[in-house]
Write a structure and sequence with these properties.
Elements lengths: L3 E6 L5 E6 L23 H8 L1 H20 L2 H16 L6 H15 L3
Antiparallel strand pairs: 1-2
Length: 114
């Protein structure tokens, strides 16, 4: 399943971005309704914003915009590739190359770009 970005309020009240279908911030996952981040519980503030039709629409619009600007445009793939190359070229003595490649592939898969 390709990930989709969602903008939600973090526990500290600041806006955050997470990918639905993945363990993201502390808010509940919209696709399953289950808590994100390994079951630490829902985010009351995020749930309150979601309960308000106006705020919920703004969140959905922002998520769609971010999906378009970052994932669909190829920007996320370019950034991921640049980080993978940087890690392999400049931190190869600290990191196992196969780990870097497999982690980059996992991120790409989660974003639906791999």
């Amino acid at each position: 399943m390709a990930g989709k970005f969602a903008v939600e309020m973090n526990a500290d009240g600041r806006p955050g971005v997470r990918a639905s279908g993945l363990c993201g911030n502390l808010g509940a996952r919209r696709d399953t309704g289950q808590p994100g981040f390994g079951g630490m519980g829902g985010n009351v503030l995020a749930e309150r914003f979601r309960a308000n039709a106006g705020f919920s629409a703004m969140i959905d619009e922002a998520a769609d915009r971010l999906q378009s600007e970052l994932v669909d445009s190829g920007v996320a793939a370019d950034i991921l590739s640049a980080w993978e190359t940087t890690l392999l070229d400049q931190a190869g003595h600290l990191l196992d190359a196969e780990t870097v490649r497999s982690e980059a592939a996992a991120i790409a898969s989660a974003l639906g770009i791999g």
